[in-house]
Write a structure and sequence with these properties.
about 40% helix; mainly alpha; two-stranded parallel ribbon; about 140 residues; 2 strands
Protein backbone atom coordinates (compact mmCIF):
# COMPACT_ATOMS: atom_id res chain seq x y z
CA UNK A 1 0.00 0.00 0.00
CA UNK A 2 1.64 3.19 -1.18
CA UNK A 3 -0.81 5.71 0.21
CA UNK A 4 0.59 7.04 3.50
CA UNK A 5 -2.78 8.23 4.78
CA UNK A 6 -6.38 7.33 4.08
CA UNK A 7 -7.18 10.87 2.96
CA UNK A 8 -10.09 9.71 0.80
CA UNK A 9 -11.68 8.23 3.94
CA UNK A 10 -11.83 11.74 5.34
CA UNK A 11 -12.83 13.37 2.03
CA UNK A 12 -9.52 15.24 1.75
CA UNK A 13 -8.56 15.24 -1.92
CA UNK A 14 -6.40 18.34 -2.13
CA UNK A 15 -3.52 16.65 -0.22
CA UNK A 16 -3.69 13.37 -2.12
CA UNK A 17 -0.41 11.97 -3.51
CA UNK A 18 0.23 12.27 -7.25
CA UNK A 19 -0.53 8.58 -7.87
CA UNK A 20 -3.99 8.83 -6.29
CA UNK A 21 -6.82 7.74 -8.63
CA UNK A 22 -8.91 10.63 -7.29
CA UNK A 23 -6.44 12.89 -9.09
CA UNK A 24 -5.11 10.99 -12.08
CA UNK A 25 -8.16 8.82 -12.84
CA UNK A 26 -10.90 11.25 -11.94
CA UNK A 27 -13.05 10.25 -14.92
CA UNK A 28 -13.02 6.59 -13.79
CA UNK A 29 -13.87 7.63 -10.23
CA UNK A 30 -16.77 9.76 -11.50
CA UNK A 31 -17.96 6.92 -13.73
CA UNK A 32 -17.92 4.54 -10.76
CA UNK A 33 -19.83 7.07 -8.67
CA UNK A 34 -22.37 7.31 -11.49
CA UNK A 35 -23.23 3.63 -11.09
CA UNK A 36 -25.03 4.58 -7.88
CA UNK A 37 -27.85 5.81 -10.12
CA UNK A 38 -28.75 2.14 -10.55
CA UNK A 39 -31.23 1.33 -7.75
CA UNK A 40 -29.76 -2.11 -6.99
CA UNK A 41 -26.19 -0.82 -6.83
CA UNK A 42 -27.37 1.99 -4.54
CA UNK A 43 -29.12 -0.56 -2.30
CA UNK A 44 -25.96 -2.69 -2.05
CA UNK A 45 -23.78 0.36 -1.29
CA UNK A 46 -26.26 1.65 1.29
CA UNK A 47 -26.53 -1.67 3.15
CA UNK A 48 -22.76 -2.09 3.06
CA UNK A 49 -22.39 1.30 4.71
CA UNK A 50 -25.06 0.44 7.27
CA UNK A 51 -23.27 -2.79 8.21
CA UNK A 52 -20.02 -0.86 8.51
CA UNK A 53 -21.70 1.67 10.77
CA UNK A 54 -23.27 -0.97 12.97
CA UNK A 55 -20.38 -3.38 13.34
CA UNK A 56 -17.03 -1.92 12.29
CA UNK A 57 -14.45 -2.74 14.92
CA UNK A 58 -17.04 -4.68 16.94
CA UNK A 59 -17.97 -7.62 14.74
CA UNK A 60 -15.80 -10.17 12.99
CA UNK A 61 -15.59 -9.95 9.21
CA UNK A 62 -17.54 -13.22 9.11
CA UNK A 63 -20.41 -11.63 11.00
CA UNK A 64 -20.21 -8.56 8.75
CA UNK A 65 -20.59 -10.80 5.69
CA UNK A 66 -23.59 -12.57 7.21
CA UNK A 67 -25.26 -9.33 8.33
CA UNK A 68 -24.71 -7.81 4.89
CA UNK A 69 -26.17 -10.87 3.18
CA UNK A 70 -29.19 -10.92 5.50
CA UNK A 71 -29.92 -7.25 4.87
CA UNK A 72 -29.88 -7.90 1.13
CA UNK A 73 -31.98 -11.07 1.42
CA UNK A 74 -29.16 -13.24 0.10
CA UNK A 75 -29.52 -16.94 0.88
CA UNK A 76 -26.64 -18.36 -1.19
CA UNK A 77 -23.04 -17.23 -0.75
CA UNK A 78 -20.14 -18.10 -3.03
CA UNK A 79 -16.76 -18.73 -1.45
CA UNK A 80 -13.73 -18.59 -3.76
CA UNK A 81 -10.54 -19.59 -1.98
CA UNK A 82 -6.87 -20.41 -2.37
CA UNK A 83 -6.09 -24.09 -1.92
CA UNK A 84 -3.64 -23.07 0.79
CA UNK A 85 -6.58 -21.70 2.78
CA UNK A 86 -8.94 -24.66 2.34
CA UNK A 87 -9.14 -25.36 6.08
CA UNK A 88 -10.11 -21.76 6.76
CA UNK A 89 -12.56 -21.82 3.84
CA UNK A 90 -14.23 -24.92 5.30
CA UNK A 91 -14.56 -23.25 8.71
CA UNK A 92 -16.06 -20.18 7.02
CA UNK A 93 -18.46 -22.31 4.96
CA UNK A 94 -19.49 -24.30 8.05
CA UNK A 95 -20.26 -21.07 9.93
CA UNK A 96 -22.30 -19.75 7.02
CA UNK A 97 -24.26 -23.00 6.75
CA UNK A 98 -24.86 -23.10 10.51
CA UNK A 99 -26.42 -19.66 10.12
CA UNK A 100 -28.82 -20.74 7.38
CA UNK A 101 -26.88 -19.86 4.23
CA UNK A 102 -26.34 -22.15 1.27
CA UNK A 103 -22.66 -22.19 0.32
CA UNK A 104 -21.22 -22.73 -3.14
CA UNK A 105 -17.44 -22.87 -3.24
CA UNK A 106 -14.62 -22.96 -5.75
CA UNK A 107 -10.91 -23.49 -5.24
CA UNK A 108 -8.15 -21.69 -7.13
CA UNK A 109 -7.11 -25.02 -8.69
CA UNK A 110 -10.49 -25.47 -10.43
CA UNK A 111 -9.99 -27.26 -13.72
CA UNK A 112 -6.90 -29.08 -12.48
CA UNK A 113 -4.77 -27.98 -15.42
CA UNK A 114 -1.13 -29.04 -15.13
CA UNK A 115 1.59 -26.42 -14.77
CA UNK A 116 3.33 -27.98 -17.77
CA UNK A 117 0.52 -26.64 -19.98
CA UNK A 118 1.87 -23.16 -19.12
CA UNK A 119 5.30 -24.15 -20.36
CA UNK A 120 6.82 -24.69 -16.91
CA UNK A 121 9.68 -27.10 -16.50
CA UNK A 122 9.40 -29.82 -13.89
CA UNK A 123 12.17 -28.11 -11.91
CA UNK A 124 9.99 -24.99 -11.55
CA UNK A 125 7.27 -26.78 -9.62
CA UNK A 126 6.86 -26.89 -5.85
CA UNK A 127 7.47 -30.64 -5.89
CA UNK A 128 9.39 -31.68 -9.03
CA UNK A 129 8.21 -35.01 -10.37
CA UNK A 130 4.72 -34.59 -8.96
CA UNK A 131 1.53 -33.50 -10.67
CA UNK A 132 0.71 -29.87 -9.88
CA UNK A 133 -2.26 -27.89 -11.11
CA UNK A 134 -1.81 -24.17 -11.66
CA UNK A 135 -4.02 -21.57 -10.02
CA UNK A 136 -6.93 -20.61 -12.23
CA UNK A 137 -7.65 -16.97 -11.48
Amino acid sequence: MKCPQALCYFGIRERAPAFCPNLNRESAVLEARGTLEDAEIMRVARESSRVEGAGYGKWTRVREVMEFAKRLGIKRIGVAFCVGLRKEAKIFADILEANGFEVVSVCCKVGGEPKESLGLEDSEKVIPGAYEAFCNP
